[in-house]
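Dear Dr. H.,

I hope your travels went smoothly. While you were away I took the liberty of generating a structure for the chain from your last submission, since the lab meeting agenda had it listed for discussion. I wanted you to have the full record in hand beforehand rather than looking at slides cold. The sequence, exactly as received, is reproduced here:
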Amino acid sequence: MCKAKQLKPKYINVKISGQKSQDKKTTINAIRFRINQEIKFLYRKKRHPNQQLYHLNLENAHQYNGMWQHIQEYIIIIYRYAATTPRLQIRIEL
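The corresponding predicted structure, in token form, is as follows:
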């Protein structure tokens, strides 16, 4: 969003002295570089839990053979019900 609209977030502070066109280009490039680095960091941060969840899902599918799909659907139904019901405490016992 920042890149498409060419906006500078308030948390990015780049101090370069001078008012020449070269100085302005350096400032713009530094801001663009900082935004790109932040985006890469956020994608890595998001990808790590997704990979862990994927590997856990594969382990459970292997451990429970053909039943894991049904167990997973049951868990999703319980959590959706708990999320829509206010102040409901569900006690799950295995």
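Two observations you may find useful: The two ends are 45 Å apart (CA to CA). The helical segments are 2-5, 21-63, 68-84.

With kind regards,
E. W.
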